[in-house]
């Protein structure tokens, strides 16, 4: 499996957490919205003739899927040229912003996600044959360096495995609220989660504290999410304790 990974920043907007803004429209989701999301998951693929020059219909089809499911799968026709330069041109046409220069990325911001045994690469799960748990990209970054878009381009498929599971964070917020409205409230606090400092294997990162969910403009964002090996019942217990503390403080 060889994948080109490109996390991107878009133009920054004033960031306000859900702790202070009440209940904006982007937090409300109906049963019809959920039904539309489920239907959209069956129609995520858009065929692309030339990634260097997207047709208006291709761009429109991609944007519609992003609106309904917050993701799209593009499929280049056989023989379509794709390399780092073409991929950069492709993202510019979609207005995806500037690449994040993470620790193991190349100068153009692209990361070649494949098994690598040399240097620091072998110390990070994406560069091994181990599976990744649920996470949001850049969960350890500070508030002025938020990943708002993620592009994964498969250069060569895996001989075995290589599957991807994803969920729209707007749906996740809604499902948490259905279970107990205090869950997303707790996760929207400015002190909801702290990612510890990391100074090993070439990294130089201090503690990073912030919300998991927050609102930017009228758009719900999610960051600082990382899967845990703690059983689900234990996670719910921890969230309930946090939510109870939130209510008492309020």
Can you tell me about this structure?
Strand 10 (about 215) and strand 11 form a beta hairpin. The strands form 4 sheets. Strands 1, 5, 6 and 7 form a 4-stranded antiparallel β-sheet that branches. Helices cover about 30% and strands about 20% of the residues. The protein is globular and about 50 Å long. It is an alpha+beta fold and about 250 residues long. It is built from 7 helices and 11 strands.
Strand content is: 15-25%
Tell me, what's the shape?
A: globular
- Radius of gyration from CA coordinates: 19 Å
By secondary-structure content and strand pairing, the structural class works out as: alpha+beta
- Give the SSE order as H and E letters: EEHHEHEHEEEHHEEEEH
- What is the average of the pLDDT values? 75
Unreliable stretches covering 5 or more consecutive residues: 11-21, 227-236, 242-250
């Amino acid at each position: 499996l060889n994948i080109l990974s490109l996390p991107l920043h878009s133009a920054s907007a004033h960031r306000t957490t859900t702790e202070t803004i009440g209940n904006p429209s982007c937090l409300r989701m109906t049963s019809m919205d959920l039904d539309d999301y489920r239907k959209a998951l069956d129609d995520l693929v858009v065929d692309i003739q030339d990634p260097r020059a997207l047709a208006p219909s291709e761009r429109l089809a991609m944007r519609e899927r992003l609106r309904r499911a917050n993701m799209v799968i593009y499929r280049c026709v056989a023989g379509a040229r794709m390399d780092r330069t073409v991929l950069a041109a492709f993202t510019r046409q979609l207005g995806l912003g500037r690449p994040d220069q993470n620790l193991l990325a190349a100068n153009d911001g692209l990361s070649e996600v494949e098994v690598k045994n040399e240097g620091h690469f072998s110390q990070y799960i994406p560069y091994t044959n181990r599976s990744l748990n649920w996470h949001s990209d850049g969960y350890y970054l500070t508030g002025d360096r938020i990943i708002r878009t993620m592009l994964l381009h498969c250069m060569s498929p895996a001989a075995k495995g290589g599957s991807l599971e994803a969920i729209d964070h707007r749906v996740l917020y809604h499902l948490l609220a259905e279970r107990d409205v205090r869950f997303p409230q707790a996760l929207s606090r400015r002190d909801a989660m702290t990612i510890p400092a990391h100074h090993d294997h070439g990294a130089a990162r201090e503690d990073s504290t912030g919300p998991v969910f927050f609102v930017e403009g009228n758009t719900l964002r999610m960051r600082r999410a990382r899967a845990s090996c703690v059983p689900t019942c234990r996670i719910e217990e921890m969230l309930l304790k946090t939510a109870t503390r939130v209510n008492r403080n309020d």
